[in-house]
Amino acid sequence: MKDFDRKYEEATKVFIPKGENRSRVTELLVERGEDLPEFTGRLLTVSNGRKEFGLRRDKDLPVLLGRDTNALGFMGDDRFEELSATVRADLGFVPVIETHISFAIAAKSDRAQETSEAIRGGSTLTIATSYPNRVQVVAEELGFGISEIVELGGSVESAQDDDPSIDAIFDIVDSGNTLRENDMAIIQRSAGTLSVGAVWSTEAN
Q: Where are the alpha helices (DSSP H) in 145-199?
């Protein structure tokens, strides 16, 4: 956390992620005693006179941080790991918030047993996911192969409805309600949970 404390104090601009991690990061900053202005209406940038704060998409952070080495942002480690090795090499990343969210492999309920047996047997599967880098690591750990990764930007739970040739999906899971509502069963939940990290450019550091 020392790296985070130092980089946060040095930063003149802080990017807060849109989406589910916004409340987590906001709570962290308030707990640090930060005088965080409200983003009223459709405001995307605010200032407290000491720092400027912006609501930004986490996928835009590498570009934004590369253009302002005095800025600091926040993104989930799930998104950070999906960046190319070249991009990650120019960024510092320190986990600062632990969540209870994890990754899981899931399939339609009527195919879950068959898919589970295929994974245990080391078969080769077609997987739909928004996390192509992470799913390859998990496949290697569990000992099954991947014949094709169907990369989707969202709504991964509907992948098997749209294309029955997809054997399973790999996605982040919180309560599991979305999966259940879409008649899906969790086959394998990854060990450990996801974290939100502080990220900054290391090019001038």
A: 159-162, 177-181
